[in-house]
Design a protein that fits this description.
about 200 residues, alpha+beta, Fumarylacetoacetate hydrolase, domain 2, 8-stranded mixed sheet, 4 helices, 15 strands, binds magnesium ion
Length: about 200
């Protein structure tokens, strides 16, 4: 199983980090050891002093595919969840400054938090409203209609480079409002009706 992530997929978030809005999806990967699920606590790693939350819609691929046309991409996933792409922002800033890959800042253990997966049929993923609360305060609000590249466009794009296999996950980018987490914080990801994850930072 592989985890493919999209960076800078919401214009307001790209700008809050001082990045240009991309004309092609920005792609990076995490290993399967990055997964954290079942609302288990996230332990702050000792190599960063600035771990940021990035709430994202995550889709699970359920059919093998390669070079998928955008109009067929919806056939390759039937479930999604909300998750967090934890990012060591201090390391990432250092790596970006040197023009180096981001993996140390993005792909570390438990950096890919997954909520509970649900069937996409009951939702409109082209205009899904989602929120991240930190200790009862709303810190990130997003709507998938603001994505620069839609879920189907992303699946099509990445499938021309990576064969997609059953169980692969795609993190589709975070809206504006990213920020640091600290020990004792509780992070809750939800849509209006459904809570997808609720866990503590330790
Ligand atoms: Mg992200």
């Amino acid at each position: 199983m592989k985890i493919i992530c999209i960076g800078r997929n919401y214009g307001a978030h790209a700008k809050e980090l001082g990045n240009e809005v991309p004309d092609k999806p920005v792609i990076f990967c995490k290993p399967d050891t990055a997964v954290l699920k079942n609302n288990e606590p996230f332990y702050l790693p000792n190599f960063s002093k600035d771990i940021h939350h990035e709430i994202e819609v995550v889709v699970k691929i359920d059919k093998m595919g390669k070079s998928i046309a955008p109009q067929f991409a919806h056939k390759y996933y039937s479930e999604f969840t909300l998750g967090i792409d934890f990012t060591a922002r201090d390391l990432q800033t250092e790596l970006k400054g040197k023009g180096l890959p981001w993996e140390l800042a993005k792909a570390f253990d438990h950096s890919a938090v997954l909520g509970e997966f649900v069937k996409k049929d009951n939702y409109d993923l082209n205009q899904l409203d989602f929120n991240l609360y930190k200790n009862d305060a709303l810190v990130q609000h997003g709507n998938t209609k603001d994505m620069l590249f839609s879920i189907d466009a992303i699946i099509s794009f990445v499938s021309f480079y990576f064969t997609l296999k059953t169980g692969d996950l795609i993190f589709t980018g975070t809206p504006a409002g990213v920020g640091a987490v600290g020990i004792g914080d509780r992070l809750i990801g939800k849509t209006e009706a459904v809570e997808f994850f609720n866990f503590e930072v330790k």
